[in-house]
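Inputs:
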Amino acid sequence: SQQGEEDPQALSIQEGENATMNCSYKTSINNLQWYRQNSGRGLVHLILIRSNEREKHSGRLRVTLDTSKKSSSLLITASRAADTASYFCAEPPTYGGSQGNLIFGKGTKLSVKP
Amino acid sequence: DTEVTQTPKHLVMGMTNKKSLKCEQHMGHRAMYWYKQKAKKPPELMFVYSYEKLSINESVPSRFSPECPNSSLLNLHLHALQPEDSALYLCASSQVRGQLAGYTFGSGTRLTVV
């Protein structure tokens, strides 16, 4: 399996604090994607970072990518109770022009307490 | 319309039943996917359709039968399922070059096999 690994598996913080989740992957990538899943619901695409990018921002989200270490991190600043969810990193296929298995990491379950 | 719609949201079926899950998108995406997600696990790919043709079958048992009648619809026909098939079934779609953009997921069908 090429499944990535996130850590921590679970994270509990207070509202207003920052949350950092890490992801390690095993293959060469064109990009890395982060998704959020509220309990029992579908996944929502948050942000995509390309392999030639080192950092990307979207609102309160900041994603970094270190291809030499095959790792990425997702930072959520000034967290809110509504950020409570599971967060997954995902590697898309590297072969061009075709679809394949979007490989999800095991996920981090984030709990933000009001 | 930027959504993937899945029906039904919940389904309870017996092991001798035949049922179908439905997925619809109107974003012009030409790649569509079925994922299976067990509790506290990441989604796992079942099938990929590209231009209405099955391009990937991740060794899924034949009791699951996908169908793509047109570019907007994706069905998953279920027959003679086992209790261990109980899970959240997620449909997703993406641009043809899916690896360069995020996937759009539906909210899923929560399936219980009794």
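The mean pLDDT of chain A is 88. Flag for discussion at group meeting.
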